[in-house]
Amino acid sequence: MGNFICLEGIDGSGKSTQIIALENLFKNKGFEVLKIREPGGTEISENVREILLNPAHKNKMNNITELLLYNAARAQLLHEVIKPALEKGVVVLADRFAYSTLAYQGYGRGLNIDMIKNLLNITCGDCFPNKTFILDLPVSLSRERQARDGARSGQDRIELEKNEFFERVAEGYRTIAKENPKNCILLNATIAQDDIFKLLVSHLDG
Ligand code: TMP
Hints:
With 206 residues, this protein is α/β, with parallel strands linked by helices. It contains 8 helices and 5 strands; from the N terminus they run E-H-E-H-H-E-H-H-E-H-H-E-H. It has a 5-stranded parallel sheet, with helices on both faces. Helix 1 (15-28) packs across helix 8 and helix 2 (43-53) packs antiparallel against helix 3 (63-87). It is globular and about 45 Å long. It starts with a strand and ends with a helix. The mean pLDDT is 95. The structure holds thymidine-5'-phosphate. Thymidine-5'-phosphate (TMP) binds next to helix 4. Residues 11, 37-39, 70, 96, 100-101, 104-105, 158 line the site of thymidine-5'-phosphate.
């Protein structure tokens, strides 16, 4: 089996930078690497992403619709891309996975956590990242970075949510890290990117 590593955290926490650094690390060690982002990564999942993030759907999309669509995109990605890659021994680096659903739809939207865990079991079965790094960032900093990036690309439907929503998501991530100490590591994302990477690598070796 390959190595399945996931980066989680609210927007602006530096997940993509760490994924690129990890990609270089594994490639230099001679591994084949696959980077994925959620929702997305297949034709069907990218189409679902469009529906999920379209700002025109703000205040229209039901929370259960949202929950199911994220999992629909994930089921397709797992079936079409992740499982075949892991079976070939490829290192899979994921920008978000199932813990995003627990954090955003569970803690953020307030949907029942046990119901979501059951759904994630249906979606993922036993295919789950062996390590998840949660980049922990104050919401105020995340919002600053979002405003800067959003000015370039426009805000998506989730980014249009209020600060309170993201506070619940960030706190949810901290709870998830506490409840899953074996496979989940919470890292302070306010420090320099290089230092975050050193910490991350130290946990990979351990
Ligand atoms: P991103 O690719 O820019 O991170 O956008 C994905 C957005 O979707 C981000 O705001 C987090 C959100 N999201 C959920 O709410 N639930 C999920 O299960 C996933 C994967 C993402």
